[in-house]
Amino acid sequence: MKRNFQIAIRFLLAKKRAMLMTLAGIVFGVAFFIVTQAQTHGFEELFIRTVLGTNGALRVQDKFQNAITSLMAESGDQTEGFKVPLKEGRTYIAGIAHPRSLKDSVEKFGSVSGVSEVLAGRASVSSGFRTEKTEVLGIRLIDHLSVTDLASQIRYGNLSGYGEEPKGILIGSRLAGRLQADIGDTLFLEQSGAKRRYRLAGIFETGVGQFDLARVFIHLGEARLLFNKPFGSSYLQVSLFEPEKAPQVAQHLEETLQHDVDSWQEREKTWLEVFRVLRFSSGLTMASIIVIAGLGMFNTLAMIVMERQREIAILRSIGYTPGDIVSIFLQQGLIVLLVGTLLGWILALSMTYGVSSLPIHIRGVFSTDSFVVKWSLWHYIWASLISALVILLASYLPARKAARIDPGKVIRRMGG
User: How do residues 116-139 score in pLDDT, each as one tens digit?
Assistant: First the structure.
């Protein structure tokens, strides 16, 4: 085996330039594959953290029944009954009629880490400069901090001031810019002709454009007065110890509580599919570099077989078996593979670290001021497996051809 290795090295050195080109292809292919996967995976995880930090893992909302039921819709001061048949025989009653008892029931599930009652509605917010349409969320601050990252999202002001001020209000950074509002300013919320006055206690930034432009937080009691809803709530926002299990927990809660429960994966299905496609397409593109390197390896070894028929025939004539010949050529591929993969890993480490330090300003889907990368051993493993499959296959085909060389025919042709 040692002798076979020495012969493999000698054959490799006979084609140094071609082998170096192949080696370079493997190095850059492995490195670029790892870096692109680290970036796309990193941005995907940032998006997921943003989703969980703003909307929670689950949302428990409308009560449903398995038969057509009369629902009540409010129109000004008058109500009228109507029936809404939905798919699968279900009808939904908008909102949560008994939020406290439902919240207590949800908290009993061992997978739940926090529950926040939310009363949501549309209103107009105005400052001394302009008026904007907003989505007002009435919350209990302590509960809401257990299901969101609101504490870390505050950019100006503080939550203690909001918590101590019954008329305190929190607004998004983009909305604050539109209103030209600053901490301590007076803002007005108007809904159905009723206008209430509030003090701006904090400005938050989630990085999600639609939230930072249109989302407003006030205390739950104030929301009941603003929307004239002394009872009930819009939904419960729920956080989990294991957010990746949200679909299974949602199904269990739905069956138990008879309320509609949406998981974050269901709500953000489109974006998650976009990230999966991006990861696959970028991986496929970078893997093509490795494939090209494999073609170069195949071409080089095929040339060695053609040019080294005399040496191969001599080896066969002195007792080398076809298996030994195959081993020599596979070892050439293995040497290039191991060296190329190791150098590719080193280059990927340095490139990934360098990319993570590059400044970038992204707002809209999430918030970041630098490239986000995911450090994962699996990226290195997949790059190595793809390289191994391509290079060893490219080495085996010429090796099999070399093993089939008839030494007698070669020697007779040389003698003739």
Answer: 999 999 999 999 889 999 999 999
- Interatomic CA distance for residues 59 and 265, integer angstroms: 11
Closest CA to 213 of 181, 173, 153, 180: 173
For 133-173, the pLDDT digits (tens) are 999 999 999 999 999 999 999 999 989 989 989 999 999 99
- Tokens 């639609």: give the residue: 210
- Which amino acid is residue 307, in one-letter code? E
Answer positive or negative: Cα dihedral of 197, 198, 203, 207: negative
How far is Cα 24 from Cα 29, in angstroms, rounded to an integer?
8
382: number of Cβ within 10 Å: 17
Neighbours of 93 (CB within 10 A): 17
Q: Which residue has the tokens 């953000």?
A: 268
β-bridge pairing 168-172 and 58-65:
unpaired
- Partners of 197 in the β-ladder: 188
Count of beta carbons in the 10 Å neighbourhood of residue 252: 14
Q: Where are the beta strands (DSSP E) in 210-317?
A: 215-219, 235-240, 259-263
d(CA 38, CA 41): 5
Which H or E run contains 410? helix 407-415
Q: Report the alpha-carbon distance of residue 308 to residue 281 in Å, rounded.
A: 40
DSSP conformation letters of 174-221? HHHHHHT--TT-EEEEEETTEEEEEEEEEEE--SBHHHHHHEEEEEHH
Closest CA to 233 of 108, 137, 91: 137
Q: At what angle do helices 16-55 and 269-307 cross, to 10 degrees?
A: 170
396 contacts 330 by C-beta, under 8 angstroms: yes
Closest CA to 114 of 165, 49, 53: 53
- Partnered with residue 171 across adjacent β-strands are 203, 216
Helix axes 309-317, 407-415, angle to 10 degrees: 120
The β-bridge relationship of strands 235-240 and 58-65 is antiparallel
Distances (CA, A) of 157 to 125, 144, 162, 203: 19, 18, 9, 6
Whole-model pTM over 0.90? no
Residue type, 38: A
Q: How much is the average pLDDT of 245-265?
A: 94
**Measured CA distances, 160 to 168, 171, 180 (Å):** 10, 15, 23
